[in-house]
Amino acid sequence: MKLATFNINGINTRLANLLAWLKTTQPDVVCLQELKATDIQFPAKALREVGYDAVWKGEHRWNGVAILSRIGEPVLTRRELPGDPADAQSRYIEAAVGGVLVGCLYLPNGNPQPGPKFDYKLAWMARLNAHAATLLATGAPVVLAGDYNVVPTEADIYNSRSWKRDALLQPEGRAAFAELLEQGWTDGIRERFPHDPPPWTFWQYFRQAWERDAGLRIDHLLLSPAAAARLTDAGVDREVRGGEKASDHAPVWITLD
How many other β-carbons are positioned within 10 Å of the β-carbon of residue 156? Predict the structure, then answer.
């Protein structure tokens, strides 16, 4: 099984890019974030025409997550992250596909910090860690894939000087991410690329970041022990970021035996 995560940054705006990538690389399962589309605006028909069934949760203008599959229709298990019934933002969806439980997440950015947006980010991470622990306890093969909006270490960014105040690099978010790994989750990209620097997954649109290869690693696939035991490869399709009207993220993927 080849499982990918891709912050598409507007699924209808970049539908042609997405379809071209799907046709070229044919991942079995894809987690999408930042759909920027309501449920009714989701392009299910176009995706079905290239062989993908989908479950999704949209939101007007912002957020939105989806799980695509070409190996059988995803069996939806959850459309929100537990822990806060009042949280209406579309940031988490979960489904069983091909014997693997897949959680697709779009973790809050948290900027500007300090402030309410950063507080929301940390609260969301605490909820994620609590839910992740319950998933681990099942012993099932689980993958938590998505845009975590966390640069885990200084090695995961080209140069942190101009990012010191950014919410993506704050110690509280890094500590919460480290706590996830300490639960027993395996970082798929780090497992495949243990030496520094790892492949970047995000290049901002400003200051010629792509042209300078001034990237960050914020898109992660975390594997439960049962899934990690099946990991055979991982990578980043960075060339997608260089395409016309591209997302500022590149697809990140793993393969499971």
Answer: 24
Catalytic site includes residue 213: no
pTM for this entry: 0.98
Domain 2-256: give its CATH code.
3.60.10.10
Residues in the chain: 257
pLDDT classification of 211: cutoffs 50, 70, 90: very high
Which one of 147, 166, 219, 237 is the catalytic residue?
Answer: 147
Under 8 Å between Cβ of 171 and 209: no
Q: Could you tell me the two tokens for 218?
A: 């914020």
Q: Is the bond preceding 114 in cis, omega lying within 30 degrees of 0?
A: yes
- Residues 6 or more apart whose Cβ sits within 8 Å of residue 195: none
Q: Is 7 annotated as a binding residue?
A: yes
Active-site annotation holds for 249? yes
Please check if 149 is assigned to a binding site: yes
Identify the pLDDT of residue 34: 98
Strand order in the sheet with 231-236: 53-57, 65-69, 29-33, 2-7, 252-256, 231-236
Look at residue 141 in the predicted model and tell me its pLDDT. 98
**147 marked as part of a ligand binding site:** yes
Neighbours of 183 (CB within 10 A): 14
